[in-house]
């Protein structure tokens, strides 16, 4: 018995030590802080791939990238209410336009999110209007309809593994905090849409990034920040932002969860409330944005090598003079965490001014002002 007690005591001490080390390693970001400016070059820490989208009489689009695979690029217009889904290959060649917008059981009314699964040769279209996920093959033919709970809206969903999507319930953010206080993240079956796992993130009191206000006429309006992305890829994992929690968590492909970073002050102590939004996460840099209701935004970058936070400017080295890169587009996937749509008129003007270099200069030399955008895919270095 004494030996058993000794073993249990040593195990407990080891576990406590491991937990303490984990806590010591957690990054803390003060969302009210004032940070010095740091300038860095994108190509120093990420790879860049340019994809000029083919333009023809049928393929005229605004270049909003919704999903990227090894072979395909899925694009819509800024307002996807037209229902058009443009399918290109990774070289930018126009392949087809899919449009299944309608009121029928095999159609979507709106496009809130798109997941491309090239292994299954399927597109998953999140339809917030009907609270469903429509599944099509890569030619646009209907395969099945995944019916979800009417109280769930999946504006943010990503490919998790062969059998599951990882989803965030936006209904949780857009309703009054005291009406819907459940968990926001879940794994959803690609086959029938049932929730196979609810991801538990602890919080004290339900909070929302949505700001509500009433005008003089008595009408109530809601404002949600543009760059609120609750699911962001981080190498082989996903980082999950529960607006009600002080801690952002990393969720692995093995379905394990652990703290990733902590924001201060506590969400419970702030009035007005403030939030920390992850944008793009790399091996060295974490690019984020703070948002305080009534005060606005601030760009923040955490540098793991310097163990410090900065404001930041990231420049594209394919320009002869400083050209800033934005990471505020919708996050993509584990290989390609971010992208930027480069409009043809600006590229043509920059080429004429001699501001471009390398591959981007070569592409711009062949553009017309009326062409579709060039997509800049920002990829992790291998």
Provide a descriptive summary of the structure in words.
- A hairpin with a 6-residue loop joins strand 19 and strand 20 (247-251).
- The strands form seven sheets. A five-stranded mixed β-sheet has the order 1-21-20-19-18, covered by helices on one side. The protein has a five-stranded mixed β-sheet with strand order 2-25-24-23-22, with no helix packed on it. Strands 4-5-6-7 form a four-stranded antiparallel β-sheet, with no helix packed on it.
- The protein is built from four helices and 27 strands.
- The protein is mainly β and 382 residues long.
- 12% of the residues lie in helices and 40% in strands.
Could you outline the blueprint of secondary structure elements for this entry?
Layout: H1 2-25, E1 27-30, E2 37-41, E3 46-52, E4 64-68, E5 72-76, E6 85-89, E7 94-98, E8 113-117, E9 122-127, E10 132-137, E11 142-147, E12 156-159, E13 164-168, H2 171-174, E14 185-189, E15 195-199, E16 211-214, E17 220-223, E18 231-234, E19 237-240, E20 247-251, E21 257-264, E22 274-281, E23 285-292, E24 296-303, E25 308-315, E26 338-342, H3 344-352, H4 358-364, E27 374-380
Parallel strand pairs: 1-21, 2-25
Antiparallel strand pairs: 3-27, 4-5, 5-6, 6-7, 8-9, 9-10, 10-11, 12-13, 13-14, 14-15, 16-17, 18-19, 19-20, 20-21, 22-23, 23-24, 24-25, 26-27
């Amino acid at each position: 018995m004494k030996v058993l007690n000794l073993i249990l005591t040593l195990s407990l001490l080891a576990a406590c030590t491991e937990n303490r080390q984990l806590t010591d390693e957690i990054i803390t970001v003060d969302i009210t802080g004032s940070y010095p400016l740091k300038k860095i070059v994108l190509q120093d820490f990420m790879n860049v791939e340019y994809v000029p989208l083919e333009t023809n009489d049928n393929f005229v689009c605004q270049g909003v990238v919704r999903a990227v695979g090894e072979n395909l690029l899925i694009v819509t217009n800024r307002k996807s209410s037209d229902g058009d889904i443009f399918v290109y290959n990774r070289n930018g060649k126009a392949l087809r336009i899919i449009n299944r917008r309608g009121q029928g059981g095999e159609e979507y009314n709106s496009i809130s999110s798109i997941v491309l699964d090239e292994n299954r040769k399927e597109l998953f279209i999140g339809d917030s209007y009907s609270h469903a996920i429509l599944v099509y093959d890569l030619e646009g033919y209907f395969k099945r309809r995944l019916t979800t709970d009417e109280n769930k809206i999946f504006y943010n969903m990503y490919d998790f593994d062969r059998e599951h999507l990882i989803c965030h319930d936006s209904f949780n953010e857009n309703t009054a905090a005291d009406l819907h206080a459940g968990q926001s993240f879940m794994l959803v079956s690609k086959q029938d849409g049932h929730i196979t796992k609810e991801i538990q993130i602890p919080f004290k009191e339900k909070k929302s990034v949505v700001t509500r206000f009433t005008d003089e006429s008595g009408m109530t309006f809601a404002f949600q920040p543009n760059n609120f992305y609750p699911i962001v890829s981080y190498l082989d994992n996903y980082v999950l932002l529960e607006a009600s929690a002080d801690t952002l968590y990393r969720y692995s492909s093995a379905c394990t969860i652990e703290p990733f970073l902590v924001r201060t002050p506590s969400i419970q102590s702030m009035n007005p409330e403030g939030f920390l939004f992850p944008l793009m996460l790399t091996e060295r840099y974490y690019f984020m944005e703070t948002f305080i209701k009534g005060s606005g935004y601030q760009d923040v970058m955490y540098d793991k090598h310097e163990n410090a936070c900065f404001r930041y400017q990231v420049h594209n080295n394919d320009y002869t003079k400083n050209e800033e890169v934005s990471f505020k587009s919708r996050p993509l996937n584990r290989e390609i965490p971010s992208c930027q749509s480069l409009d043809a008129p600006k590229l043509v003007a920059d080429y004429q001014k001699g501001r471009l270099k390398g591959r981007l200069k070569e592409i711009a030399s062949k553009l017309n002002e009326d062409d579709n955008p060039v997509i800049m895919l920002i990829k992790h270095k291998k």
